[in-house]
Amino acid sequence: MAEMKDIILKKFAEVYGGEPGARAFFAPGRVNLIGEHTDYNGGHVFPCALTIGTYAVARKRTDRRLRFFSMNFEHLGVIESSLDDLKPSKDAGWTNYPKGVMWAFGEKGMEIPCGLDILLNGNIPNGSGLSSSASVEVVTGYILSEMFGLGVSNQDLALIGQFSENQFNGVNCGIMDQFAIAMGKKDNAIFLDTSDLSYEYAPIKLDGAKIVISCSNKKRGLGSSKYNERREECETALKQIQTGMGIDTLGDLSEEEFESAKMAITDEDCRKRARHAVYENQRTIQAVAALKANDIEKFGQLMNESHVSLRDDYEVTGEELDTLVEEAWKVEGVIGSRMTGAGFGGCTVSIVKDEAVDRFIQEVGSAYKATIGYEADFYVVEVGSGPCEL
After folding, report:
1. What does pTM read for this prediction?
2. Where are the domains of the chain?
3. What is the pLDDT of residues 149-158, one digit of tens each?
4. Catalytic residues
C-alpha cells in the first residue's frame, strides 16, 4: 500500500499540480463466498473484503468544480463537472459513481461545501464482479466524510453507496457489496442478515488452502443485464406467496415452508427464482455453521450446490462461468467452486488446497481458453480490511 500511495500521489501532482493538501485513501473490493442473489430477497450473505481495491487521492478546491481522473482510463483524460451539475449522464462514464455519492450526501442533508480534484487507481479487474463500482462509491464516501469532517459511520457509508447506485445510477442492487467493503475486517468474512442488517464477523481459517478468483474476462454491465429482471421475478413470487402466508421476504422461508407454498407462484420461472432465493439463504446459514465447526469440506460442498442452483434455477451463469466452475470441479485439491457476483460474466471463487493452486490455474486456464476462445485471469487473494486513509 505504501508503494501504491507514492505512485498515486506522484501521478496526482502530474495531473493536477503539486500544491499541498492532497490526501490518499483506499477502499477494498469484495468477493462473496456464498449467498448470491439473496441480498435483495431478505436473506443472508457471506462476503469478505479483499486486499485489492480502489486507491484514491483527493484535494479540496476553492470553487465548486469537480475534476476526475482515473489511471485505469487514462485515455479519457480529466473529466470535469461541478457540484451544481450532479445528475447522471452517459457522457460522464465512470464518474457517475463518485458523482452519485456526492449527490446522495446532499440528499441526506450533507451538502459538500467545495469542489474537489480526485484521482482514482483501481487494481480490481474491470467488469470482474468484484465490485469495482461499490469500491469507488465507498472510497468516495470515505473521502467526503474525512475531508469535510462529516463523521459518517462505515455502515452509513454502505447505505449511502447503495442509495446512490439505486437512485442515481439506476441499478437496483442490494446492500451486500457496499456493506462488505465498508465493514470489511481482515481475515474475517461478514455473515450479514440483509433483512435487518444484523451481522457477525466469522474468521476465515483456511489452513492449507487459498481463495482463488477466476475472472472470465466476459464484460458485462449490470444495469443492462438481466439483474433487474431477476429482481422483479422474485418480487412477483413473493407477492403471490404473501396471499396465503404472512411473510415479509423470501428470506423468511425455510425450505419446507417454501415447498408447501410454492404452488401459489403461477409462473414457473418465478417459482424457480424464488426456490433459489430460499434454498441459497439456507445454504449460507449452513455454510457459516460448517466454517465455525472447521468443516471446510462441507463449506466447499455448499459452494458447489450454490453454483448448480444459480445455473439451473436462477439462470445467471452462462457458458463462461459454467466452464470455469466445471473445470475447477475436475481438479484434485479443489474444495469448492462457484460463480460469485451478479453473474452473466464476471468471476468464480474457488477454495483450493495450497499444493493444487498452480495446477488449478494451469488446467482450468487451458481448458477455458480451448472452450471459450480467450483467456481467463486468475488471482490468489487475501481477506482484507475496510476503507482507510493511507
Report:
1. 0.87
2. 2-204, 209-381
3. 999 999 999 9
4. 177
